Structures are given as C-alpha cells and as structure tokens.
Amino acid sequence: VNPNYKNWNWKDLFCFWGVNVQSLIGFSLIASLYLMYNLNAFVVFFGTILGSFFVYLFSNIIGKPSQKFGLPFVVLLRSSLGVNGAKYFGLLRGIVGISIFGIQTYFLSKVFTFLIKIMIIKINPFFFDQEIFLILLLGLNIIDWTSILICIIVQSYLFSLGMLFNKKIIKFSAISIYLGMLLFFLFTLLTDVKFTSEAFVSSFKYENLINSENLGPLITVAGTVFAYFSIVIISFGDFSRYVKNEKELKKGNLSLILNLIIFSFFAFFIVTGVDAFSKEGSNALSRILTNPTDIAINLDSLDHQILIFIFIILATASTNLIVNYIPSQYSLINFLPDSLSLKSSSLIISILGLIIGIFWVSYLSQIGILSFIDTFGSFFGPLAGVMIIDYYFIKKGDLINKDIYSLEKDKAYYYSGGWHIKGVYSILLGFIFSAATIWNPSLLFLKSFSWLIGAIISAIVYFFLTKN
Predict the structure, then answer these.
(1) β-bridge mates for residue 243, sequence order
(2) Is the pLDDT of residue 192 over 70?
(3) Of 108, 218, 226, 408, which is most buried, counting CB atoms within 10 Å of its CB?
(4) For 369, phi and psi rounded to 5 degrees?
(5) How far apart, in whole angstroms, are the C-alpha atoms of residue 236 and residue 315?
(6) Which stretches does DSSP call E strand in 58-116?
(7) Closest among 353, 17, 59, 64 to 170, alpha carbons compared
(8) For position 308, what pLDDT does the model report?
(9) Which residues neighbour 139 within 8 Å (Cβ) at sequence distance 6 or greater?
(10) What does the pLDDT read at residue 288?
(11) Is 406 left (phi over 0), alpha (psi -120 to 50) or beta?
(12) Cβ–Cβ under 8 Å, residues 100 and 316
C-alpha cells in the first residue's frame, strides 16, 4: 500500500462495520433472533454483544499484520502456505465471493424491478398488458433482464474506480442507511407513539433473566452472530492495511459493537411496530415481517415504498462491495498476477456474477448451490487459524516483505516448490472437521461454530508441526 493511502481512521472503520451490519440479511437475522425464536430479548441482546466481541478480537488479530505490512489477505497467506499454496487456497475466497456477488446482484435486481414497475404503473397502468412482458427467458422477463444488467454495469463501474472511491461509497452508504433507518423509526413511532412503544417494550421479559437455561440460547445467538461475520473476518486484512496505526484499528473494530447496538434497536423497533400495526384491521398478516423488502411491499404509502427500496439498493450494493467484490479482486490478481489488473479482474467478476445471477432462479437455486458455497467457506476458519499461529507464534510478528513477493527458490516463503506442506496438511485437517458440521446431519447443530472449529483444529496442528 502506498503510505499516502494508509489514511483510514476509526471513523472509517465504523462505516465499514456499519455497512456489514446494514445488509438485508443482517436486518432479517437480527429481527428474526429477537422475534421468531421466542427467546428473551435480553438474551438475544447479550448474545449479540458476546458474538460481536469475538468478531472484534479476531478482527484485531487478523487485521494487525496487514495493517503493519500493508498486505492483503491473499499475500499474507504466502507466509504460512508458500507463494503457490496461497494462490490456490486464496482463490477459494474468490470463488465464494464471486458466487455470492452474483446471487446478491440477482436479489438487488429484483428491487430495481420493483422500482421500474412502480414508475411504469404511475405513468401508464395498462402498459404491462402488452405481450412482450409475458415472454420469459431463463425465468426472467424483459424488465428482469434490464434490471440485472443495470445492476452489473453500475456496480462494476463504481467498484472498479479504486479504493479511494470505494472508501467514499462505504462512508456514504453507512451514514445514509442510518439516516434512512432513523426516518423510518420516527415514522413508525410517530404514527402512534403509545401503541408502538408498548409493542416494543412488551417484547422484553425481565423475569428469569439470570437463569441457567438461558446459557444455551445465549451461546447459540453468539455463534450465529459470529458466523454471520466470519466471511468478513478472513479477508479483513484487505481493508485493515489502509488503517493509519494499530490504535485506530482497535478503536475502529470496537465500533462494530456500537453498530450492532444501534442497528439492533432500529431493526427491532421497526419490525415490532410494523407487526403491531399489521395485526390491526381486517387485513391482518399471519406472520411477522422481518425482511425489509416484505415490509416495504406491505406499506400503504407508495412514497415510503420507493424510499425504502432506494435504501435497500444502497445497502445491498455496498455490502456486495466489501464482502464479495474487493476480496475477489485480490484473489484473482494473486492467482494470475502477470495477467490481471484491477480493471481486468473486475471484468471477470462482473461476467461470472452476471452468469450466476441469470441462472440463479432457473438452475442454481434448484441444485442447492449454497451448500457447495458453504463447503468452500469451510476453508476460511482453517486458513485463519494457520495464519494466526504462523504470524504470532512461528514468525513472532516478523515478515520479510521482499521475500513474500519473490518466486526464487532460495527465498523464505518458497518452501517446497512454492508450497508449505505442513500448512496445507493443517488446513485440510481443519477443513474436514469444519465441513462435517455442514454435511453430517448429526453435527448440524454446530454449523454456527464451523469457522471456529476449523480454526482451532488447524491452529493446533500447525503449531505442533512447525514449532521446531
């Protein structure tokens, strides 16, 4: 990293974590934990704080070497796996990132479709009676195709402008979404202050708060929150390398907990308020709405619907940038450093993302592709475990920057043909245990802890294999 670009402070990291929290999945997850599993709201709150605390710890541990040496995740991986080992194992992060980027783009395009239909109906309500809108290609009509192409083109153009511009996107998105949630919170509250406040307060149960039976649910909530952020943790170095110093890094990561408190309050209040209103009258809904898209569709006000859809687009796109796009760029460039640049890797991500988005409904969602993505993701915990042990216990916090960019056989990170066999063995062993929580039905209850299980197994094996 150019030293001039190492200008991120804790406020920038506050926005970074804000964007990660503010996704559609994040909103639905937090609201669901509070409302759909009949848990004590206080148990969910403390479980969320506990889970975010572990995210904070691991983000500091994984982010520190990248901040110190200015290295992204895939380059730092060369220290523990070798220059060639890092290529192929780092590519797994790119495969997962591109896959989720395509899926997210599809869902983003559906929001665009809603907006386009709303605008067309306002202009001419009978426009959709034309035969062209009944023609489907791969399960998509002409508006669906238009929307997904717009999403791919706009995202690809904006995201490929460089990290300085991406930083502006992150800050704008985080602040805008919180302002949007504040507006929606006030709208919900002021519709009937007493009614909505009572609905919110009644969701909290003070009795039996300190009870041994709450320990299991609390740990489950903490594990769920940690699992949600696990994909961000592994490649956090892609962003921490731009942070000024370690002090700003730790302070910024601590803001994750503040983000979760703020976001949880808004999400919980909005959902309980909307749910309370939806149960009134003859059109009462039989289920609780926790997805912002569903909430928007069920609002009577068209202006409010449009406003919420705009915020959903902003939240989804910015999350796509952080979680999927940037890590995939670095993974691809690291795999083919002589052939790819930021621009060319962006083109590859866009094309593959478009293909995945197009075939999501008609094919990919039907074959259970998410299970395969989760399986690839089972490598992330083991990779983190090996990286942590290698940097802090084997290399003692010291790296040779010149050697980490060298393919010469006598350099420190070339190992055996560019592979560090002990690191590879440790990761594969951790992967077996991590993936077992996905594919073994009797271990599904441990799925939220898959990342941690893989990290611990690989870290222990790697330590004993390399300590001498």
Answers:
(1) 8
(2) yes
(3) 108
(4) -60, -25
(5) 19
(6) none
(7) 17
(8) 85
(9) 361, 362
(10) 62
(11) beta
(12) no
| CA distance linking residue 196 with residue 239, whole number of Å | 40
C-alpha to C-alpha distance for 382 and 456, rounded to whole angstroms: 7
For 237-264, write each residue's pLDDT tens digit: 999 999 999 999 999 999 999 999 999 8
User: Which is nearest to 29 in space by CA: 250, 271, 360, 258?
Assistant: 271
Please, where are the H alpha helices in 192-245? Answer: 193-201, 215-234, 237-240
The answer to whether residues 53 and 218 touch, using CB atoms and an 8 Å cutoff, is no
Rounded to an integer, what distance in angstroms lies between the CA atom of residue 171 and that of residue 394?
37
Average pLDDT of 86-102? 96
pLDDT at 100: 95
pTM score, two decimals? 0.92
* Contact indicator for 66, 241 with CB cutoff of 8 Å: yes
Nearest to 83 by CA among 330, 326, 335, 327: 335
Average pLDDT of the chain, as a whole number: 88
Query: Residue 199's pLDDT band (boundaries 50, 70, 90)?
Result: confident
Residue among 125, 142, 123 nearest 133 (CA): 142
Q: What angle, 0 to 180 degrees and rounded to 10, lies between the N-to-C axes of helices 302-319 and 163-191?
A: 150
The per-residue pLDDT for 21 is 93
CA distance readout (Å), 237 to 17, 47, 94, 242, 453: 14, 26, 15, 9, 21
In percent, how much of the chain has pLDDT > 90? 58
pLDDT, residue 139, reads: 78
Is residue 448 within 8 A of residue 378, CB to CB? The reply is: no
